[in-house]
Amino acid sequence: MRQDIETVSPQGLDLQERVIEINRVAKVVKGGRRFSFTALVAVGDEDSVVGVGYGKAREVPLAIQKAVENARKSLVRVPKYGQTIPHRIIGRFGAGHVVLRPASPGTGVIAGGAVRAVLELAGIRDVLSKSIGTQNPINLVKATMQGLTSLRRPEDVAKLRGLSVKEVLGLQENGKAAAASPAAADEARPGSGGGQGEAPSEPVSLGTEAVSPPEAPQAGEAPDG
Fold this sequence. Notes:
By secondary structure, the chain is an alpha+beta fold. The protein has helices at 60-72, 113-121, 137-149, 154-161, 165-169, 171-224; strands at residues 16-29, 32-44, 49-57, 76-77, 89-93, 96-102, 109-110, 127-133. A hairpin with a 2-residue loop joins strand 5 (89-93) and strand 6 (96-102).
């Protein structure tokens, strides 16, 4: 987990709230059972700021309110590259593992309910995810947050390595390879199939025509004789 996590103040932000799960729990006391409710909530501005919170109360609205207040205190800014994440990352919390992979534009958010809520509120529009291990929403949400906060910005990595952002992301190398491979394929196809394929066909056709002309004079000499 990164030590330089950028925390954000909720002041001046248009935060959206999304309830991930509401659960009823019971506490056994001397007089019987006391029921209460827990709420798991994600809060974000759908740009790059997101946070999660957990609240517990005797009533559902009060539990959601406590969870939202807790989430607003733990807002962080998520590094992004365009509409996706900069690189592949695995978030871990307890028995829950969440694998996050960058995706091309137009892919969308390929994720489950708990992970999807966090990613969408963080402003990530194209990402591939896979949850491994437990399916407990609390562990999945915290594993997702651990993975997002562990992401590194391309600018920071490029500065440490002394390279440009495109070189770190491999855009130049992939672009040259993609441009060279069709040209190489086009040059290879005519050279292998076109020139060598037509060369043996012409002698065969000439050979067959060379056999037919001698028969024409023999057919013409028969009437003269």
